[in-house]
Structures are given as structure tokens and as C-alpha cells.
Amino acid sequence: MLKRKAMTQLENWVNNKYKKCLIVQGARQTGKTYLIERFAENNYEETVEINFKEMPSAFDIFSGDLSVDSMIMAFRFRFPEKKMKPGKTLFFFDEIQECAEAITSLKFWADDNRYDVIASGSLLGIDYKRSSSYPVGYVDYMKMYGLDFEEFLWGIGIAEDLIESVRPFLAEKKVVPDAIHSQMMAYYRQYLAVGGMPEAVQEYVVSKDFREVDRIQRNLLQGYQYDIAHYATAEEKVKAEKCYLSLSRQLLDKENHKFQYKEIENGARAQKYYSSIEWLLCADIIHMSRSVTDIRYDLDDYARNELFRVYTTDLSLLIAMKDFSLKQFIVENTLSGNTKGGLYECAVADALYKSGYTLYYYRNDTTKKELDFLIQKNGIVIPIEVKSGNTRATSLTSVIKNKKDIPCGYKFIDGNMGINENGIITMPLYMAAFI
């Protein structure tokens, strides 16, 4: 079993005496079902599990009276072998987006408070089979992502104490010894090639066979395309798929990574395709970084919805949009040009996204200033640049010099730690997983 940080979140939830029903959200195949099942084994005497895709006949349980007593009676007839003891039984509703009434029922489970309930779904943000009465205020939320770099290291067998020994170099802004740094970069390149989808990581742990990893990644990408075809409206199906499959060109083939509709098809415009981007975002198939007009807190006040960059929710899916040879170039460290810079930017975006940050960027065509990312931490804006080499970060230097409320900036490089007198903290790409 791959160790996941989300298990700690589940344990914190179950130990909270004020807990509500829990909705675990996230993209498909990020390990939601497997993790919840293992959690249930460790914390409950029994689990009553319904996957609404596999068991559509279970819709009947929620088709009438939604009082907990009525639902429990229906469950007992369907699962006569289950004891369903209050406080000892977990009800797990998987793929709950398929059953609108089951979503509505969460309010009544929360009010009753005799049983713990976890619901999981990968397309809860779209209007597909929308619940008539969404249980606002009656549920807690948890977001699941693919594995981050630290979880990948756990998966390939790197001892936790070794990983922890790297953190002080970041905290103290000290150069990482070459023997450690070179090995960490080798592991990091493996992670870039494999990505963080659990099935792909597990295959790599077992076989170390990049061909098998590639096969799994392409199957996952095909699954995402199936979701678009199955769940998107008839008007959006083709457009959403075109938008999604354009991301490798948007991010790896050109220097400016602002989402450009012309990369979808000649003459494409926002009027035709923006609704498809919104659908992909709501379906947890992409995440977005928005442009801002000023670099100051709160960045959301300065964000422009019409200018943005779009990233896949895991590197696995971006890599699968390219030829297998890309993996070889990554692992052998022979990437160059826009592909190298684009991949490193995507890798840092991936790490920040999985750490829960909302992403922004800044680009001024008049002054030629550009910052790859802006994040907010404890009420402070932190500007970030990503470099394929240790070149000068002129935009970052200028912002820190002229913005007195910004004490420092991060520069991620394919190199080692460092700090200069301008307040720029230079760090290896792999450190993005630890900030």
C-alpha cells in the first residue's frame, strides 16, 4: 500500500467530536476509494459500501423517505449480514455524483449523528444529476490529489528519516551536500516521468519499467477523455476534449504558457471555448493559474478571469500526451528549450497545487516583467520564478526591490540552494514539495 498524507486527514476527521459527513473530492484515479477502504478497515467494525456506478439498483434506498431510520431499514434488507451498529459502522457512498438523492441524504445523516458517513466522487463540481437539495453546512470536505514528490519517495522506499534530513537545508537556506542533492535530483526526474497517479507509481515501484508506466498513463488519459465524453453536455464534449488535449502544446511546445485558444484550432476564440475550460475546471480535470494586474495582497482582487494558464491535475496526464521518448529525455536529463522550461514550470505548479495553494501569475508586456507564480502565505504575497538553469531572475529582483511589503521571493532551479542580498531564495526544484 502506498502511504498517503490524506490518511492523516481522515484520522483527524474521525477523531473530531464535531465532525459532519465527509465528502472526499478529487480527480478520478487519485486513490480516493482505496484509501477510504483501508481507513475503514482500521477504524470501524464494519463498512457498508455502495458504489453507485457498480450498483445502480441501490438508488432505490434513497428514492423515498430520507429519514435515517428508513434508510437503515432499507440497508438491512439489502445487506442482511451487516449489523450496522451506531458508532461502529461506516457508511461509504462511492461515486455519489451518480445519485442526487444520496447527496441530499447527507443532511439527514449529519443531523441524526449516529453513524459516520463518507462520500466520494470525482465529478461533484459539475451539474450532472445535480442534487435538488445540496447539504450545505452539513458536510466537511477533503480534497485528494495524486502523490506529491514526498509521497513518491515513500513509495520507492526512501526512509522517512532521510527525507526529513533534507528539510533543514531549506529552513536554514544551506547548500545541500552534492551527494544528497544529486541523488534527490535523480529521484525527482523519476517522479517527473512517472507522475503521481497511484496506479502508475505502484507499477514503477514494482517493475521499474517505464514502458508499463507509460501504458498505465495512457489508459488514465483515455479514462479522462471518456469522462469528458460521458459527462459533458452534448455541446461541450468535443470542445472540452480539444481544450484538454491542447495542454501539451500550451505548456511544453511554446515559450509563453498563457492559455491561447489558437492552439486548439485556427481562429478559435474565447467565446466558443471558455465554457469548456470552465467545465474541465469544475470537473477537477484541470487546475488554473490566473493573471493579476498588481502584485499585492489580496491577489484575488487583482485577478483577471480572461487571462490564465491551465495545468493538468497530475504530471502523469501531461506526460501521456507526449511521445514515450519524453520520459527518456527527462530521466537522462537531456531536455532542452521550451520543453525543459515548460516541464519544470508544470512540476512546480503541480507541487504548489497539491500543497493547497491558489495559483496566480504576473506578466506585463510593456515592462517585460514576468513572474511564473504568485502565492499567498500568512497574508504575504510570495513571487516565484522557475528557471531551467541558474540564470538571473530580473523580474523577481525588481519586484522585491520595489515592493516593500514583499520580503522575499523563490527561484526554483535545476541546481542547488542559495540566497542573495536581494531576498531571492534559490532552491532546487524538488524543494517545491516542502514549502
Kindly list the characteristics that best describe this protein.
single chain, 435 residues, alpha/beta, Rossmann fold, 2 domains, eight-stranded mixed β-sheet, five-stranded parallel β-sheet, 17 helices
Class derived from helix and strand content: alpha/beta
User: How are helices and strands ordered from N to C?
Assistant: HEHEHEHEEHHHHHHHHHEEHHHEEEHEEE
**Percentage of residues in strands:** 15-25%
Low-confidence stretches: none
How many alpha or pi helices?
Answer: 17
Largest sheet: 8 strands, mixed
**N/C terminus separation:** 26 Å
Describe this structure in words.
The protein has 435 residues and is of the alpha/beta class. The protein folds into two domains: 139 residues, 3-Layer(aba) Sandwich (Rossmann fold); 286 residues, no CATH class. 41% of the residues lie in helices and 19% in strands. It is built from 17 helices and 13 strands. The strands form two sheets. The chain has an eight-stranded mixed beta sheet with strand order 7-6-8-9-10-11-13-12. Strands 2-3-4-1-5 form a five-stranded parallel beta sheet, sandwiched between helices. A hairpin with a 4-residue loop joins strand 8 and strand 9. Helix 1 crosses helix 2 and helix 10 runs antiparallel to helix 11. The longest helix is centred in the middle third of the chain and has 22 residues. The protein is globular and about 70 Å long. It starts with 5 loop residues before the first helix and ends in a 7-residue tail after the last strand.
